[in-house]
Predict the structure.
Amino acid sequence: MPSQESVPQERREEQVRRLDTLFREHERALYRYVRYLSDSPSMAKDIYQETWLRVAQHIARGGRIKNFKSFLFTTAVNLFRDELRKLKIRRFFLGSEGEQANIIWKIADDEKAPSFEMRDALAAAIRELSPKQRMMFTLAYIEGFKIHDISEIMGCAEGTVKATIYKAVQKLRKELKDFNTA
């Protein structure tokens, strides 16, 4: 790996411009996604910052990125998984108390949500999904990723993604049947 001193000034400036452009293009979507993964604002900020740090390091090393958005979200998912592993270890030794042990999802405040009651019910239903289901559901329905992209991000077969999302949707429908107006 070349040191920063050995990289020509022009190339460093180009890397900074490239990263700045990518950051502006994806910053909001990435932060929204990590906030959906974790109810802890501090954990979300940590994952968000660490994701950008790792991406910047990858670019600085001259690493090639075929699909930037997929690479970015894969990095965030892997960091979130690492945090879950750490929390499981902490819970084993310290119990389930504390903000960090309370990993749940929040529902975005948007105008499309019919009511606070519905959002609370949806938040409760999403808490019942497994972490894998939460991640895939969010990538598909909130971030708008295609099945193929989710399979790359999660490192599994497309069939696994389809089945996992299907099961998540079925669980949510069952939990929210009282809100079904159709």
Q: What stands out?
A: The first helix runs from residue 9 to 37. The two ends are 58 Å apart (CA to CA). Residues 92-113 have pLDDT under 50 and may be disordered. The chain is about 70% helix and 0% strand.
